[in-house]
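User: Can you help me understand a structure? I only have the sequence.
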Amino acid sequence: MATKKKTTGVTSTEFPTDIKPMLATLVDKPVDDEGWMYEVKWDGYRAIGYMHNGTVDIKSRNNKSFNEKFYPVFDALKQWGIDAIVDGEIVVVNEKGVPDFGDLQNWRSEADGQLAFYLFDLLWLDGQNLMDLPLIERRKQLQQVAPSIPGIKVSENFEATGTEFFELADKLGLEGIMAKKADSRYVPDLRSKEWLKIKTEKHQELIIGGYTKNEGTPKKFSALLLGLFENGAFHHVTPVGTGFNVKMQVEILEKLKPLETPDCPFIHVPEFNKPSRFRPNPPKAEVTWVKPELVCEISYREMTKDGSIRHPSFKGLREDKSAKDVVRERPVPVTDVLHEENTLVQKKVIASPGKKERKSLLNPNEETQVKNVGGHDMKFTNLSKVYWPKDNVTKRDMLNYYYQVAPFIMPYLKDRPQTLNRFPHGIEGETFYQKDVKGKAPDWIETFPYHSYADGRDKEFLVCTDEASLLYVASLGCIEINPWSSRRQAPDNPDWCIIDLDPDKNTFEQVIEAACVTKNILDAMGITAFPKTSGSTGLHIYIPFGAKYDYEDSKEFGRMVAKLIHKELPGFTSIERKTKDRGGKMYIDFLQNRPQATVAGPYSLRPKPGAPVSMPLHWDEVKKGLQIRDFTIFNAMDRLKEVGDIFKGVLGKGVDLDKVLKKADKEFGVKMDNRK
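Assistant: Let's start by predicting it. Here is the structure, written out as tokens:
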């Protein structure tokens, strides 16, 4: 939190709301004079963050709001709880901590990359205007008030010569470095020679004036025609035909569509069909002109003396900038600004963002979103539909949960046919089961054939194979995920045997007691079993089988264990199949071990109030005080980050049934029915 101590040499002012950022001058060489401070030139969107009386506003350099577009940064600044104005750059960093502007441009949610707001200046604090302070003093105050909040970082200064720091930045693949006078004041809307930028790769912002499409090309367009305004006229600078993918081309055309015009906007019509030395017979191209409003950024190898650009490549759209602000950036000789000297690099230039944390696949604003998952463009719709009304949990929340939990749940779903239990209108709406997806699922969804004797037709189960298929199932309104116990590679051989403790008029303490009795029985047989909440009213206990035995063996072994549990707890348990014959007692269900029978898988959500999760447990958690509602969509991921996947032993090599049955006979005097 910010200190309320007044700073000498500054004035108290009202809270400003429209500060245009101070800009740097592009130079051609690094700076080595004394009195300069060096930092990374972040390849992102320049942003001013306004925080006042609990409200937050993030604005681009052309006063465009970033509040919704970059909602994690907005949320992080709200957590800060400070009255201040900060200047910085919003970037997406890769696993090495290096900014990627292409990823930033395509960013829609945390699934698209890790956002960071790198702060490099503090302009206003607790009623005081700091812009007249020297940069070095503003930086000290910024360091003092900087929070420890993910996504908010201070752009470090480095004690180094400009030359050494520039060489290091080049090796690390950074866009360039910034050199700033330590005693420089902050002058809004000024391109200052006290702030310098030196780029490792040459970049230029340009305005789109049209696009071409070559005859016979399968591409959406062949090249963008780019230019800029000079002396009041719009001049063509270069075409750019590389650096695009199909998705980018589609998005660009969508943004250009409203700007189309029949008239060429350039002062001179570009020769887009002109032959060249290397293409004496270029393909015929048709051109579409657009009003020169949309800004993009290109990289290039060289700019000639006449302003022509060699080897341009598209980097991304710059919707944060206005066309009127685009200027031709020619590096000026650094000797025009300063002299040279040497120091040593003493700090690490950039920090890795650490292990990438899954947060959200779908952003909180758009009702329909298309995301590429596992190479498949998937359309998610009706995202604000409320699935758990009393808890205000939406379809978007459910899909984001399954995206987050995918690394944990997938080992228990992969290659397993599914029974789809669909809740298209949430837990209070109509629901239905779906087994057959033949001809109804996308081509990339894998299936498992079966024959329906009821209507004599060949049908297909959906098979969950990867994260994309999991999210497809969830997008159908499948709140809970119901996998087979066996995989398609060995469909008759389950990987586990399940003891399902299903209470009727019982207390949950009795369920816990039955689970503990089950553990004692299995311990006596030398079996390590794994418990989880059902997410509804009971508990599931999984016994690893390792796909070594068939469903008949699994069912009969489960029957034997169920009889032993019932023998220990006859007062409140039952193994009667028919509900009317149980007398309100807890059903010890072993028939879940038949072919095609399913229960909600580990980490699955359940269509019950509170949005509970079927959560694996340590055995020492199965005790008085445990509640089903302890594990919900709201806290499940926090638990998994802490304890990890404690259920993975279920997928081990499995029990040796012959040895287990010998112990069962010795300890309890029982044998398994139908065992050869």
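Now, to help you interpret it: The domain at 202-336 is CATH 2.40.50.140 (OB fold (Dihydrolipoamide Acetyltransferase, E2P)). The longest strand covers residues 202-214. Let me know which part you'd like to focus on.
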